[in-house]
Amino acid sequence: MKADIRPLVAVVSARYRTLLQYRAAAFAGFATQLFWGAIRLMILAAFFAAATEPQPMNLTQVVAYVWLGQALLGMLPWNVDADFRAQVRDGTVAYDLLRPLDLYSYWFGRTLAFRVAAPTLRGIPMVLFSMALLPLVGLGDWALTPPASAVAFAGFVAALVVAAMLATAVTLLAHISLLWTISGIGMDRILTVLVTIFSGLVVPLPLFPDWLQPFLNWQPFRGLADVPYRIYSGNIPPAEIAAELFFILVWTVALVVMGRLILLRGVRRMVVQGG
Amino acid sequence: MNAAALLLRYLAISLRGQLQYRASFLMAALGNLLNCLIELAGIWVLFDRFGNLSGWSFAEVAFFCGAVNATYAIGELMATGFDQFGTLYVKTGDFDRLLLRPRSTVLQLAGHELSLRRLGRLLPGLVIVVVAWGALDLPVEADRFALLAFAMAGGVAFFFALMVLQATMCFWTTESLELMNILTYGGVETASYPLPIYHRLFRRFFTFVVPLACIGYFPIVAVLGVDDPLGTSRMFQVAAPLAGFAFLGVAIGVWQLGVRRYTSTGS
């Protein structure tokens, strides 16, 4: 068993180190996300300013939600690995079939590294900025508040770990879909759209209309962002954390099984591009 | 062949090329369409929850959102060559070939591709504007249409200029950086909401430094026929889109400086 895991660990760490090379891109990403965070906050705050009745989330919780969303944006499965796309397009993806590894696990490892590298580079400065720097320059109202409690923090960290797995499983579905559309754009964009809206990235899910809540509560994408961020801010009380973690885990397993089945079909009908 | 005919020839070739990948094009266009609708859905969700946005109605905000999306789509449609400049021309050294041809680089890059999938954002943007127009009971008058068309033309120039600036940065950085996304995608997001809700510094930045509000908020306030809470005059609102064309002029000037500085990667 041990021997089977080693190449996968190597894949994850090699990929992770490659991705950490792009520091200028990381800076650009940081600036971009800072801007997005500021715009989202101003829009949401303007709406809250007119609110007369109590809302399912208060503004402090929404502020934390937005900043965490910006810090961890890279973890969300809203894009595909450009290197992987290029591999499918030029046919070198065929080499992966030759490796003495389980294809799905190999790709899972690669994709996990892709999902986790960006947030470590961009997320940490974003958290420092929004938690420490904003209060110093007199924008304390817009700052990321500390976690609601120690339990909330522990639950948040645990949720992030399972959310990373879920994000990887979703990204892999997009990667596998590339085997069907040769030029490499299409299917993945539609997945992007679903992820963007149903993870809570556009508008925090509790602010959606009440009649939509039953549906929103059962779809998998909320495990990517909505659940971890609300655990952090205490909007999901500690008593419900365990059930929420289980929810994410079940969806992760379901999507992994689905991905494996689709991959099996994809490999069988794959036509490798020559040249 | 004159410049316009050459540009048309370039674009015709690009269209034929794209239609070879029909499934991919349709999916990408659908993706763009959904992106635009998501933005609208996000606005709708917030209005459903909160009722109003400091006095602005859903239809008014939808009008802003539709107009800026349609404008951006046209700009992006025409500037794909600049958008992908770093990856396609600088990193590979292929820009050398463009420089050797007896035509301006701006013309050649504008003719690089007429990216059809952008229609996925243009069409819903226009539909949203038309529906919002009806929902707001705005009179159907030629001068309102003319002002909207003028604002959109200025906006196309503005977004085209942003793509030119993004490409210009590649002369220094080789790879394109996503920094300009702040102003392109971020600009679309910003201009989807009325300007007064933003902080003073943001408002000044988007009026005087990067004149996004001059091609979005200000002229559209005049089209809607409402008073600007910021207190600008009608005269200013109507003339504001000129800033978009001026911005394009500056961008092309900066581009020429960049071209002079260009050294080939040599590969």
Computed Rg of chain B: 19 Å
The count of helical stretches of chain A stands at 11
Distance between the termini of chain A: 38 Å
The coarse overall form of chain A would be: globular
Q: How many separate domains of chain A?
A: 1
Main structural class of chain B: mainly alpha
Order of helices and strands of chain B: HHHHHHHHHHHHHHH
Q: Indicate the overall shape of chain B.
A: globular
- Characterize the main sheet of chain A: none
Helix proportion range of chain B? over 70%
User: What's the total number of strands of chain B?
Assistant: 0
Most extensive protein-chain contact, per-chain counts: A-B, 38 and 39 residues
- The first-to-last residue Cα distance of chain B is 31 Å
The largest sheet of chain B, given as strand count, sense and whether it forms a barrel, is: none
User: How many discrete structural domains of chain B?
Assistant: 1
The residue-averaged pLDDT of chain A reads 84
Broad structural category of chain A: mainly alpha
Mean pLDDT of chain B: 87
Secondary structure: helix percent of chain A: 55-70%
Give the C-alpha Rg of chain A: 20 Å
Features:
heterodimer, A: 275 residues, mainly alpha, 69% helix, globular, B: 267 residues, 15 helices, 0% strand
Structure in words:
The complex is a heterodimer of chains A (275) and B (267). Chain A is mainly alpha-helical and 275 residues long. Chain A has eleven helices and no strands. Chain A has one domain (2-269). Chain A has helices at residues 2-19, 23-50, 59-71, 82-90, 93-98, 103-136, 150-177, 187-198, 213-216, 226-233, 241-269. In chain A, helix 3 crosses helix 6 (103-136) and helix 6 crosses helix 7. With 267 residues, chain B is an all-alpha fold. Chain B is built from 15 helices and no strands. In chain B, helix 2 packs parallel to helix 8, helix 3 packs antiparallel against helix 8 and helix 9 runs antiparallel to helix 13. Chain B is globular, with a radius of gyration of 19 Å. The mean pLDDT of chain B is 87.
